[in-house]
Design brief:
The protein has 370 residues and is of the alpha+beta class. It has three domains: 3-103, no CATH class; 109-204, no CATH class; 219-364, Orthogonal Bundle (Tetracycline Repressor, domain 2). Helix content is 41%, strand content 15%. It is built from twelve helices and twelve strands. The strands form three sheets. Strands 1, 2, 3, 4, 5, 6, 7 and 8 form an eight-stranded mixed beta sheet that branches. A two-stranded parallel sheet has the order 9-12. The chain has a two-stranded antiparallel ribbon with strand order 10-11. Strand 7 and strand 8 (76-79) form a beta hairpin. Helix 1 (48-57) packs antiparallel against helix 2, helix 5 (156-162) packs across helix 6 (182-204) and helix 8 packs antiparallel against helix 9 (281-289). The longest helix is centred in the middle third of the chain and has 23 residues, at 182-204. The two termini are 49 Å apart.
């Protein structure tokens, strides 16, 4: 199943595809296109009712007769032999209906069933059990086994709860004259009690070195800061590489981390000095782009940036305090052109700030760093 989309009236409408056959003289393997707004394309635009009619008329089919010719465009053609098909029209319609629900971020039939299950387990009311039964039977038949996500018991505990005592198991589960008994019902209830216990235990489990409190919300950095005139209260913008916090590296003072990074990236000594003297980080980057890179720079650049950020916060304790003040919040850095540094890509600028922050806090706590 592939994700697709179409644009209608300037609006992007998400969709997915499912394989089907179109019977038009011969049988053609193609993709049924299903969209969030309920539109379905099967060589013609239809809705759910239209898809049912296409299935009833034999235009959309789910199996091919022995010896019939089948084609797949741009791939080839062949004849069906010893084929095995298992999907029915009702199964397909159920899956398509679930696709539309998921595309709209709504619960599908399986999730609706599990919601009914939770309600019944809470109340043990007969009305809620009957609602569970209806919700279970609304799941496409071939998907019911997966409703609980348990490949050992499959959906058997769910079937037992949904089936009346003394009735053969619903949904196709049966062995000879087997019927659901009170002891089977009790076993199913014990199953769900144990499942809930394990889930709660797992949810509450955390590694021994996890923080006591939840991680703080993400800090977003991205506003470009000009060394020509930073605001009086720059706030968290001082953490950015472009912020005018001069740093000394190898006996040379650079106006900012950005200046130092771009100067060190070039093998041309003259260009390095021009980059160091650039009025803005933008101008420094532009000058660097016109110069040759140091050999293997892409492989070394992350280590260089880590060293420059360490130098910045070591040489500017007041900025280090601001970085430490972000706690354990993830740092998302969007003010960069490169996917290597920016949050839309690998977010290395944000990740290195988190690393330097951790090192600062370790030293403040007297924890030695090897």
């Amino acid at each position: 199943m592939d994700r697709i989309y179409r644009v209608a009236d300037g609006r992007r409408i998400e969709g997915v595809t499912r394989p089907v056959f179109i019977h038009n003289v011969s049988y053609h393997l193609t993709s049924l296109q299903i969209y969030a707004d309920g539109a379905i394309h099967c060589w013609e635009w239809v809705d759910m009712d239209g898809l049912r009619r296409k299935l009833d008329s034999g235009w959309v089919v789910l199996e091919v007769p022995e010896g019939a010719e089948v084609s797949a465009f741009e791939l080839g053609r062949w004849k069906a032999a010893d084929a095995n098909f298992w999907l029915t029209s009702e199964m397909l319609l159920g899956e398509v209906a679930d696709d539309i629900e998921r595309l709209n971020d709504r619960p599908d039939s399986a999730k609706r069933c599990l919601t009914r299950l939770d309600r019944y387990l809470e109340t043990r009311e007969e009305g809620d059990r009957r609602a569970l039964r209806e919700a279970y039977l609304a799941i496409p038949e071939h998907k019911r086994h997966y409703a609980l996500g348990d490949m050992d018991r499959k959906d058997w505990p769910l079937v037992v709860l949904a089936t009346d005592i003394g009735e053969p198991p619903i949904g196709g589960w049966f062995q000879d004259d087997e019927v659901v008994t009170e002891s089977m019902r009790e076993d199913a209830l014990r199953y769900f009690a144990e499942r809930d216990r394990v889930r709660t235990e797992f949810a509450n489990r955390r590694p021994a070195d996890d923080p006591e409190n939840p991680v703080a919300g993400t800090v977003h950095l991205g506003k470009r800061v000009s060394p020509q005139g930073p605001p009086e209260k720059a706030g968290l913008d001082v953490l950015q590489d472009e912020y005018p916090a001069p740093i000394e590296v190898g006996g040379v003072v650079y106006p900012s981390v950005s200046h130092a990074y771009w100067a060190l990236s070039t093998a041309d000594a003259g260009a390095r000095e021009r980059i160091r003297e650039a009025e803005t980080p933008h101008e420094a980057r532009k000058l660097a782009a016109e110069s040759a890179r140091v050999e293997s720079w892409p492989d070394a650049r992350t280590a260089v940036m880590a060293g420059l950020q360490r130098a910045k916060f070591a040489q500017h304790p007041e900025l280090a305090e601001i970085l430490i003040g972000t706690g354990d919040a993830p740092i998302s850095y969007s003010g960069m052109d490169s996917d290597h540094w920016a949050a839309r890509g690998r977010n290395w600028s944000g990740r290195l700030l988190e690393l330097v922050r951790s090192e600062l806090r370790a030293r403040a706590a007297g924890i030695g760093i090897p």
